[in-house]
Specification:
2 helices, about 55% helix
Length: about 110
C-alpha cells in the first residue's frame, strides 16, 4: 500500500525537476565565454609547459646515454613547442548602430 502512494508522489516531484530555467542574460553569456577562453588558454599553456619538460627530459637522457658510452638513436623530428603567450581577454563587442530613419519622399 505504501508503495502505491509513493509512486504518484515521485511522479509529481519528477515533474518539478524538469522545470525550464530562464535564458541567461547577455552579461552572463559574456562571462561564460570569457571563462571558456581562459580555460582554453590554460590548456594551451599546460601543453606548452609539458612540451618543454619533455624536451628537457629527452636532452638529459641523451646526454646521460652519451656519457655512459651507449649508442644513442637519432632524435625523432617533432613539432616545435608553441608558446601561447599571455592571456588577452577579447574586447567587448560594440553595439550595432541604430538604423537611420527613412526620409519622406516628396
Amino acid at each position: 500500500m505504501k508503495r502505491l502512494l509513493s509512486i504518484p508522489l515521485l511522479l509529481m516531484l519528477g515533474g518539478l525537476a524538469v522545470a525550464k530555467l530562464p535564458a541567461p542574460s547577455d552579461e552572463a553569456k559574456a562571462k561564460a565565454a570569457e571563462a571558456a577562453a581562459k580555460a582554453a588558454h590554460g590548456d594551451k599553456v599546460a601543453a606548452f609547459q609539458l612540451c618543454k619538460s619533455m624536451d628537457r627530459v629527452a636532452a638529459a637522457y641523451r646526454a646521460d646515454a652519451k656519457k655512459a658510452g651507449k649508442e644513442v638513436p637519432p632524435p625523432v623530428d617533432t613539432p616545435a613547442c608553441a608558446d601561447p603567450g599571455p592571456f588577452v581577454a577579447a574586447a567587448p563587442a560594440a553595439p550595432a548602430p541604430a538604423p537611420a530613419a527613412p526620409t519622406p519622399k516628396k
